[in-house]
Design brief:
Elements (H helix, E strand, L loop, with lengths): L3 E6 L8 E9 L3 E7 L19 H15 L5 E10 L8 E8 L4 E8 L2 E11 L2 H5 L4
Antiparallel strand pairs: 1-2, 2-3, 3-5, 4-7, 5-6, 6-7
Length: 137
């Protein structure tokens, strides 16, 4: 069951212009969210005209924001170690986003639609020593 809502600003938007994600499971090592892309059509504008897809940059942006908000608020994005786009995310998709919090700020993520993996990857957040030992839940 989805429990609370996370607001995530899009690049170039002010904090007051946000999208809602429903947060489900949230532990020190796992986070699940659901987003209905039909309610977020403006995130497809310009990418690509006539054939809209949810850009890889925005996909990475959302999971970095989720990881920072729920686990490492002071974490600084320091790079992608793996990223794979298996299927385009389209305006009518309902997505399940799953993140796992590995050690030392390494985050793994998956975007899924109807149990099909649409994209996945791993990124690293630079952490101070206090955040490495204590993830925020």
């Amino acid at each position: 069951m989805m429990q609370d809502t996370v607001k995530t600003p899009m690049a170039g938007q002010s904090v007051s212009e946000v999208y809602a994600m429903n947060i489900g499971e949230k532990t020190a090592t796992r986070l699940c969210a659901r987003v209905d892309m039909r309610d977020n059509r403006d995130c497809f504008s310009g990418h690509f005209p006539g054939v809209p897809i949810f850009s890889g940059v925005m996909q990475l942006h959302w999971v970095v924001l989720l990881a920072k908000q729920h686990w490492y608020p002071q974490g600084k994005f320091s790079g992608v170690s793996r990223i794979k786009f298996q299927c385009p995310i389209l305006p009518d998709d309902v997505l399940d986003i799953e993140l796992t919090n590995a050690t030392g700020g390494k985050i793994n993520y998956w975007y899924k639609c109807k149990d099909r993996v649409m994209s996945s990857g791993s990124f690293l957040l630079s952490l101070d020593s206090a955040e490495i030992t204590t993830a925020h839940v």
